[in-house]
Amino acid sequence: MLVNSFGRIFRITTCGESYGIGKGSGLAVIVDGVPPGLKLTREIIQEELDKRRPGKGELNSPRKETDRCEIFAGIGQDGVTTGAPVGIIIYNVDTQKIHIDQYREYRDIFRPGHATYPFFLKYGEAQDWCGAGRASGRETVARVAGGAVAKFILKREKIEILAYTKECMGIKARDMKWEEIKRNYRKNEINCPDLEAAKKMEKRVLEIKEEGDTAGGIIELIVHNVPAGLGEPVFDKMGALLAHAICSIGAVKGIEFGAGFRVGNMKGSENNDQPYITKDGKIRFRTNNAGGLLGGITNGEDIVARVAVKPTPTISIEQTSINMKTMKEVKLKPITRRDPTLLGRIYAVIEAMAAIAVLDALYLARAYDSLAKLDEKWMRLKENY
Do residues 176 and 194 make contact, with C-beta atoms less than 8 angstroms apart? Predict the structure, then answer.
């Protein structure tokens, strides 16, 4: 299996499966590019992992994973980062035989909506049939651990990242300002800051759950207080880096920035964000249709993106599939643990991947600035604080 790393200067490399073998199975991440002298603790990483931990409510998978992390490398005897790679491991604790046997019953049958078929094409019969292996949503726990380190470093730079449920099954949260979104962040199971819309969303998801089905939705991502000047204007546009990071998450099927697909029905005069000068001499924009990105480079406004999340593919409704060993069509109605919607947990993964992409771009921008030695007036314009 190739390419299990993401990032260039700040870089994560992950390994591990949904089930693995034996009591010591788990998932791990190696984080390169961590500065020395940081008071990085297990509790800081655990706070992020708890956001995506299963088994907490009616909208989550009943799988009882504690997702307790341990830092096994990169912290010195004085309790601070040494500049060496940081290693984090999260052990699987709920891989019971009954669940493994359930997967074994249809190991040769690919579940509609899952990666089983292309995994057969790529890895043959040796592909990991138990819990989908690296294609499982559980793979993302290592990403969140790595993203927690990135968020910790970004916090020093006063950059904040939040993602929340914007829409679920046609129920939309109203447009809200950053302050209200932050105030109502994680106040309900579906993580929608519009508290009235959240009630309707949760009710609808539970109705769909009773049908044996699952629900999709839209997550909105905001990168707040991001400095101008991040991203490269050709192949490594900031939007392209974020799209790569976020679209690498298995359940993500689409992404748009700012006004997104609405620009297809706009006039230029409607789409263009007009600039103005603030009292303290900063350049800002009256609207943010660009989603904080111009020419592939951040312009100092919040980066705003919306992410389409598919419904959990495992459902309790009978579907047609194919037995890859006999090459015959069969009926499949899998009995496995699943989330009735991914919205209540996937936002943490989106935040993590966004943090990794933004921090990596910040490293490159700071390195370039130190050598470019631009006039101080341009450097002052890049800072948002």
Answer: yes
